[in-house]
Design a protein that fits this description.
6 strands, 292 residues
Length: 292
């Protein structure tokens, strides 16, 4: 769910990688409605070279679908930076120093010192952006690369298929920007606490590993952990990043499927549980079959 980091170069296409026995990764659903068949696939925003190519059922589903649907086009860096300037940066003349309490600023300085990142280089960003940057650096310590995200791989292998976006960068970053100063400070401190304790890396790397093994029980358990507890981070994940967006995504997918079939790649957590996109589509009369 890390949407604070700029888009990166996309992964290599499948035909550039030596094919071998390919394990199942993520989660794949087949969706039927009114004679049309689409596919719903759970993505992650980081990866490793050995995550690709994807399982043949996924690449075959993509190949026979008329269009590719993603949350947004991760190649559109201009749109991302415009949204970041609008929602993630302070107006000219303001910095983090003007918005964080002295205690929070001291905690942030200590966290930045550990990763040798000068406060001056991030002080124009709002706390939620800095928190996500710090967590992103933790993830990369495990060898996961933002440039190897699954969305990039799908884009590289969709050939000349039309690309449809469910959201855009301005909408996604605006969700974080809706947090007030007190919530943003709490979000920053909670993430620093989790980095210091090792929980941030355990959760993030654990989710990527669970995706890499198509481990549905572990994916469900980690989703519950990420959305449980009386913290700003957990409530924001449960109510906004998932609770608000899942019904919107389901409605957009229904509109797309009324016109034709598609291969739909969305963040893995959007597929989980009674309020996940597959469950919502079932509630609206769609036949949703889990392939794996």
């Amino acid at each position: 769910m890390d949407m604070s980091i700029p888009p990166a170069h996309v992964a290599a296409p499948a035909d550039a990688i030596q094919l071998s026995e390919v394990p199942r990764r993520g989660a794949l659903y087949r969706v039927h409605h009114e004679g049309k068949t689409s596919y719903l696939f759970g993505t992650i925003h980081v990866g490793k070279q050995d995550f690709f190519p994807l399982e043949p059922e996924v690449t075959e589903a993509l190949a026979k679908s008329s269009s590719l649907v993603l949350e947004l086009d991760v190649r559109s860096s201009d749109a991302y930076f415009r949204a970041l300037a609008r929602h993630g940066q302070y107006p000219a003349g303001q910095t983090l120093r003007d918005h964080l309490s002295p205690a929070a600023l001291a905690r942030l300085q200590a966290a930045l010192d550990k990763v040798k990142l000068p406060l001056k280089s991030v002080e124009h960003y709002r706390p939620w952006v800095v928190a996500n940057i710090l967590v992103g650096q933790e993830i990369e310590k495990s060898g996961f690369n933002r440039g190897m995200g699954v969305e990039g791989y799908l884009l590289s292998n969709a050939r000349k298929k039309p690309l449809l976006e469910l959201e855009n960068a301005d909408y996604q970053l605006g969700l974080f920007g809706s947090l007030d100063d007190a919530q943003q400070e709490a979000y920053l401190l909670e993430n620093i606490d989790e980095i210091d304790s090792g929980a941030a890396l355990r959760k993030s790397a654990g989710l990527v590993e669970a995706w890499g093994a198509a481990d549905a029980p572990r994916i469900a358990a980690l989703t519950r952990e990420l959305t449980s507890g009386d913290t700003v981070s957990a409530r924001f994940m449960e109510r906004t990043l998932l609770g608000k967006r899942n019904p919107e995504m389901a409605a957009s997918i229904e509109a797309i499927m009324r016109k034709g079939d598609a291969f739909i790649g969305i963040g893995l957590l959007h597929l989980v549980g009674d309020n996940g996109v597959p469950a919502l589509l079932r509630q609206h009369g769609y036949q949703v079959e889990k392939v794996y």
